[in-house]
Amino acid sequence: MRVLFAAFVAALVTACATTPTGPGTARAEVFAAERAFARSMAERDLAAFGRHVAEDSLFFGGRQVLRGRAAVVEGWKAYFDGPTAPFSWEPDQVEVLASGQLALSTGPVRDPKGAVIARFNSIWQRQQDGRWLVIFDKGSPPD
């Protein structure tokens, strides 16, 4: 009986460890990931920026599409030159699929004086290790 109970507990612990977090928790995780991503720009930390980008990501910028983490980091490198960030962003909405594997974050993009100049739209993908990384990113005109 003890062996059966121990096996049941072990199975329950394993199931809980591999089950995606609930939608509220996942939303909070993506909000936090997006804020950390934005902080990488404010802190002028290109390496930290790159750690938030999925290896097979697509970032849309005008007519150009940056394909893959290396291209995204290289394409965004100029934004990290100088002591002051050329823009900032902050999520105001996050929605997560019921599967807990993909999420959308969106919010205003501001110039250094605080004026809204655009809106960002990012799709985040939960990785095998539980981290959230940006898989798609595209800006749009402000609301």
How does this model look, in words?
This protein has 143 residues and is α+β, with helices and mostly antiparallel strands. It has one domain: Nuclear Transport Factor 2, Chain: A (Roll). It is 35% helix and 34% strand. The chain contains 4 helices and 7 strands, in the order αααββαβββββ. Strands 1, 2, 3, 4, 5, 6 and 7 form a 7-stranded mixed β-sheet that branches. The longest helix has 20 residues. The protein starts with a helix and ends with a strand. 19% of the residues are buried. The N terminus is likely disordered.
Q: What layout of secondary structure does this protein have?
A:
Blueprint: H1 2-18, H2 23-42, H3 46-50, E1 53-61, E2 64-67, H4 69-76, E3 88-89, E4 93-96, E5 102-110, E6 116-126, E7 132-140
Parallel strand pairs: 1-7
Antiparallel strand pairs: 1-2, 3-5, 4-5, 5-6, 6-7
Short description:
By secondary structure, the chain is of the alpha+beta class. The protein contains four helices and seven strands, in the order αααββαβββββ.
List keywords for this structure.
143 residues; alpha+beta; Nuclear Transport Factor 2, Chain: A; seven-stranded mixed β-sheet; 4 helices; 7 strands; 34% strand
Number of helices: 4
Question: What is the ordering of alpha helices and beta strands?
Answer: HHHEEHEEEEE
| CATH class bucket | Alpha Beta
**CATH third-tier fold name:** Nuclear Transport Factor 2, Chain: A
Instruction: Characterize the quaternary organization of these chains.
Output: single chain
| Strand content range | 25-35%
- Separation of the first and last Cα atoms: 63 Å
CATH architect. name: Roll
Which residues form runs of ≥5 with pLDDT under 50? 1-20
